[in-house]
Amino acid sequence: MQNSLKRRIDLADLTANNIGVFRTLHQVLFPITYNEKFYEESLNIGELAKLAYFNDICVGCIRCQLEDEKLYLMTLGVLAAYRCIGIGIGQKLLDHILEHAQKLNIKSIYLHVWTENKDAIEWYTKRKFHILETLPNYYTKIQPGTAHHNPLQPTEKTIQVDIMDIPGTNFGLYLSIHINSKLTSQKKKTYQTLSYIKSSGMKHIIINYNE
To answer: Which residues belong to any copy of the N-acetyltransferase domain (predicted)?
Structure first.
């Protein structure tokens, strides 16, 4: 019982009382500045935005956006001191979203990934994520701007992950997510193993998630 108390992980809804903590986590974890609308909308999307607490200390967050039968995973992050030590905070956040997506009959979940963060790539590939293809000139504020993308059948579940590891920052699981505006009926090949595509020194991947 004492050991379980030391490892207690709780997820909490966003409220007017803790939105400031949510904002601070985004400022610390992610290299993108989110506008006020992002935080205002985060208060009103229920299960799609959560804070993660480890022994009553707020250490992580997740934020998604529902688009018809698709889910846009915008951010998922855990403070550096609480990553890679077997606690499972990132897993708890991801499991929550996957379970909620299943209840909503979500057909696809997308993220984009910069692949230099090999630890994060390994983390996702161990959780049924698979690489797809590249989108050239996708980013406008990050150079080079290449990202990966793949149109899939609506029956497939796809997670397109953008993982960035920028020197001098203390985050590892940075997810800058951009969901495909529409799916097509053309089925693309999904890869069961990692195949990195390098562009001017920056690598990006798309990862396909299959249940």
So the answer is: 9-153
pLDDT, averaged in runs of 10, over the chain (211 residues): 66 98 93 90 97 96 91 88 85 94 87 65 74 60 46 34 36 31 29 29 44 46
How far apart, in Å, do the first and last CA atoms of the chain sit? 33
27 backbone φψ class: left, alpha, beta (φ>0; ψ -120 to 50): alpha
What is the DSSP secondary structure assignment for residue 33, as one 8-state letter? P
Q: What is the pLDDT of residue 116?
A: 61
CB 75, CB 93: distance < 8 Å:
no
Taking the alpha carbons of 79, 81, 86, 87 in that order, is the dihedral positive or negative?
negative
Mind telling me the catalytic residues?
Answer: 72, 112
* Domains of the chain, CATH where assigned: 2-209 (3.40.630.30)
* Contacts for 172 with CB less than 8 Å, ≥ 6 apart: 78, 80, 83, 84, 117, 119, 120, 165
Reported as type and span, the H/E element at residue 73 is strand 70-78
